[in-house]
Design a protein that fits this description.
Elements: H1 2-9, H2 17-34, H3 41-64, H4 77-111, H5 113-146, H6 157-166, H7 168-191, H8 195-224
Helix pairs in contact: 1-8, 2-3, 2-8, 3-4, 3-8, 4-5, 5-6, 7-8
Length: 227
């Protein structure tokens, strides 16, 4: 539990955390706001999201390597964008199957009758596989970061599962805490009109920083263990 408590405090540990945190939250808000533009808004919103994603990955990589510095300064925007893009590709690789199953299940469910029954099964299957993907993702990013940032390293599932097993308790608690906090953010977004989107954007950035710190430390401990 020490890692979790430390991670939850990490975004505010720096004496000058305010401007760094606010900028990341604003980028998330801007990305979500652009997403409301018809047709092309989703693309621009996605591009904006690469910056805070790359920033969080940088923190994850530093903690994975044992560098537990406070929040870094924003800069090297091209590097942040590039790293965020490749992290997005990894996330997409893990979520494309459960996402497709969920989409198919929802489409069938809307049809009614027997197709609705089949749709519910696909929805359950999609959510189940999605939870597994979310569980594997932090260690997958650790493999990616430690093995020369090769995309293929993030999909070595046998090695990923083996490393998770070495730190299973801390890893599971971190995954569970992240899931609960994310669901809480989703609740805020759906229950509070307009302001909910802003709170979700800043909350999601906070969560990404905390999880980057948490899983960077946990995955480093797993890598230091002897199989």
């Amino acid at each position: 539990m020490g890692n979790l408590e430390k991670a939850l405090k990490y975004p505010f540990a720096d004496k000058v955390w305010g401007p760094k945190f606010v900028l990341g939250g604003i980028l998330n808000v801007a990305g979500m706001a652009l997403g409301f533009i018809p047709y092309i808004g989703f693309i621009f919103g996605l591009l904006f999201s690469f910056f805070p994603l790359g920033y969080s990955y940088k923190i994850f990589r530093d903690h994975l390597r044992g560098k537990e510095d406070p929040l870094p300064n924003w800069g090297e925007w091209g590097d942040l964008f590039s790293r965020g893009f490749f992290v997005f590709l990894i996330i997409l690789g893990y979520w494309i199957i459960p996402g497709f199953l969920y989409w198919l299940g929802f489409a069938l469910w809307q049809g009614g009758g027997f197709s609705a029954f089949v749709g519910v099964l696909f929805l359950i299957l999609g959510m189940g596989i999605g939870l597994v993907a979310f569980f594997l993702l932090p260690m997958a990013l650790a493999f990616y970061a430690l093995e020369g940032e090769l995309l293929s390293a993030a999909f070595r599932w046998n090695g990923i599962v083996e490393k998770i097993w070495l730190v299973q308790r801390e890893y599971f608690l971190g995954w569970l805490a992240g899931l609960v906090l994310f669901l809480a953010l989703l609740f805020i977004r759906t229950q509070f009109l307009y302001i909910g989107w802003i709170l979700f954007s800043f909350g999601f950035f906070y969560l990404s920083l905390s999880l980057a710190c948490l899983f960077g430390n946990i995955c480093r401990e797993g890598g230091s263990e002897k199989a």
